[in-house]
């Protein structure tokens, strides 16, 4: 053990003394900088005008004049910011009247008259900036609605009453309002599915909906204003803020993977090409111990790189988007209960899942490095297969209907993709993927062992 | 005498070529053992098998009684050396390179590192990156690497490559001192007999993977020079001297401005030539015996030139 540890120390000194490693570490920091800055610029472009102070002249110009009247009205009402509840409410009120006046076939005089009256009453709540009164009017309007199915109506009334009871303004900028909307959507869909004879697909959907229901109920009960719900393909509850940018940074692990392949692909072959292997192997340490030490070094350097990337993303995103949301809990549903976790751990978990593929490719490059004793070949092959492997599998599976392609390593390396069920194979589970990866890893490591421990050093 | 290295019936094939053919010899504590042979004779292959870099097809190698294959770690604790060129991590400093080996060996202190650095004469440059070292400096660093852990067996593969004459002498002295004062068995390979002559106690000669014989070095030289030796004369009057040589029925060669070589068969011939030159009034300014070629030694030892590659 002590010998292996000492060789690991040696490997670390060699790896980190190289200029190329220093450049790689700088690349990782730069990558995090690019990711946060890029995401922030994108965020700023899309949301700055609506999140910040509203510029009605620009809004008018952008909409080509058809809604000039509405924007003028809003300006007059003194709605300055998009997160003002009145920004969305007034648009709803305006369109209510607009459709009444413009629907086909045309509505009766009486109906239009009613719509106009309603418009005036609603507008008053907006002028008074009284969202409770606005909701009361909504309740009244919903109760009078004869076209709405009974179940839906009941749910809508419950939702409005809830807003009233808990002081939740009706704006999508309010996270409780979002939760309330999602909660009633889930309930509505559940009711829909439960009424019809169920199919297999519905059953799965029903499970998801019930999870949603439980999670959003939890949010509402505890009045959690900032939260993350993991394992959604799009984390739309936090569309572009800190958490989505931070958790999506996992997409760029591929770049880190290239760097780790460079380390793994040269750690053995570089000793051969420089001739230093002869001096490494004449020490009183068995070859397999040196091999184990080198492999441990590759793995831990890989992990160090991932941790650096994680920390820099965390810090930089915090700087750009603010650290305010950092304590937001991540909410998951398991074994009949809502689990409250840390958002930081959730993203860390995504990184860990992402790193399975990363370390698999590193092991591949390590084995090739040991087998052919040529850095360029090991690195080139590793990067090539990492970039093209999944594409090739996808073509085999989708283009040629070859289901056996699921046994190819590259069909299984992206665990995050498998969890979100986006691979082209039916019933593709994480367990299956991990077993396939384990088999390949054993083959790679045995190859590396055979080539390094048994072959002559010429 | 303590037996440090024991090679018995060693065989190695590569493809269908027999690289090492039934090689057996022993090296003792306190001696400098020369391993002499032309390029391609199997010197480096043998050394690589001693150091555990190549597998052994047949036969055994023991270091201090420990089998190199079966008890690799214990055997290697007693060995230090340089195989082929002294390769180093060029992006590390000399000292960082030495610390790499320190971590892999038992009982080497920082104090000992400073001591070996002083011994090989690298104190001033040891904290520089090795990429700025000359070949000679790398050779010295390699030696420091090889001896830091007080090995009982020191294996040096062509150690004087790339050294200047002063460096060669220094290295020679270090080997002799390690062997004669510290009781190390020093195993040195070379293709130059002249070098062996100056530092070795015993010499083993290898050609085509076979050991042709092991002899004390002075015996070897004597044997090689038994019948014929080449003398270089430097004289004041070259044409006159050449005439005298011709009169003595000898053939001068390598004729230069003031010197020429001549091969003599016996002491009598040499003596007569001296008298003849003196009586012709020629001043002999210098007479030196020329180095024997390795090939000549082989011819002597094997009794014929056929076996030399």
Explain what this protein looks like in three dimensions.
The complex is a heterodimer of chains A (458) and B (309). With 458 residues, chain A is an all-alpha fold. Chain A contains 19 helices and 2 strands. Chain A has a domain at 2-45 and 245-454. Chain A has helices at residues 2-17, 19-51, 56-62, 68-77, 85-102, 109-127, 131-144, 150-166, 175-195, 200-222, 242-248, 253-266, 269-274, 277-280, 287-321, 343-372, 375-399, 415-419, 430-454; strands at residues 329-334, 337-342. In chain A, a hairpin with a 2-residue loop joins strand 1 and strand 2. Residues 233-238 of chain A have low confidence and may be disordered. Chain B has 2 domains: 3-216, 3-Layer(aba) Sandwich (Rossmann fold); 226-294, ACT-like. Chain A, domain 2 (Alpha-Beta Plaits, 2-Layer Sandwich). Helices cover 37% and strands 28% of the residues of chain B. Chain B contains 11 helices and 14 strands. In chain B, helix 4 crosses helix 5 (135-147) and helix 8 (217-225) crosses helix 11 (294-302). Chain B starts with a strand and ends in a 7-residue tail after the last helix. Residues 303-309 of chain B have low confidence and may be disordered. Chain A binds chain B through residues 3, 6-7, 9-10, 13-14, 17-19, 274-276, 278-279, 281-286, 454, 456-458, and chain B through 48, 51-55, 72-77, 79, 81, 83-85, 87-92, 96, 99-101, 103-106, 145.
